What does this fold into?
Amino acid sequence: MDLDLWTEKYRPPTLGEIIGQESIIESLTKFVENRNVPHCLFSGPPGTSKTTAAMAMARDLFGDTFDRNFMELNASDERGIDVVRNQIKNFARTMPAGNAPFKILVLDEADHLTADAQHALRRTMESYAGSCRMILICNYSSRIIPPIQSRCAIFRFARLSDDSMAKRLKYIAKREKVSVNVNGHKAILYLAEGDMRAAINLLQASASAGEKVDDAVVYSIAGRANPKAIKEMLDSADVNYEDALEKLRVLIYQQGVSPVDLARQLHREILKLDISENQKMLILERAAEVEFRIGEGASGEVQLSALLAHIGLERGKS
It folds into this structure.
């Protein structure tokens, strides 16, 4: 591969290239311009650019000294108090290299830290704030103890919009010479649910099949049901229950869709049914119970059959 093309293709992103989180990126850009970054807490769903934003901010701030002034740890791997006392403290206590105003330590999956480790971390954040700023990244900020939250500027990342993800997926497909039709894009966006990382992985897995990427390939690779098939099954529940059961068995036993995944997809499709709000509430309550029972080890076919029967009875009242 041509070196210039490789460099352009694989270079790390900058803050200005991150899309879908405009208000957050604007604040982070001002931090870089002022060369002053507070301790930060990035929270939000997976695949919404939290880690990318932290690394891009550090690269924009440090430039050539990035490797000497930046450290990333994943708390899901090393989550005990020894990590805070040793690795984090040793990095934070040393002065930054070059003309950097401070170091940056990114602690990914911070909500996996034990309570003792979090209490030790808050003291380290105070003691070495002059030489090191910390960026904690988590999916659920409620799992971070209040003393740490109060020491951080909190940024909440939202799920990415379908339009933003579609543009990037088309760009990737064009650069990698992957043929994806409209239905294929819609299927990827439906399954990713605002998670850009999941969308890219799904595109790559679908492209590896060696065929044109359409909705059939995407749902087959993901092991998930086509929403059209689920809608047909729901529509049959009050008209021909035996037909609905047969469609359910096809999804579970022939297409290999996990009953838990199917229960969660049913939840999404129930919200689109043309029934009264009261009926939706009753069905969704039953759907939640079914999903819990399947997760606890109950038979997927039996539980989903009961849910279909309940949906059929409720729709029959309309």
Residues 3-156 form a domain with the Rossmann fold fold (CATH 3.40.50.300). The longest strand covers residues 132-138. Residues 152 and 254 are 50 Å apart (CA to CA). The two ends are 63 Å apart (CA to CA).
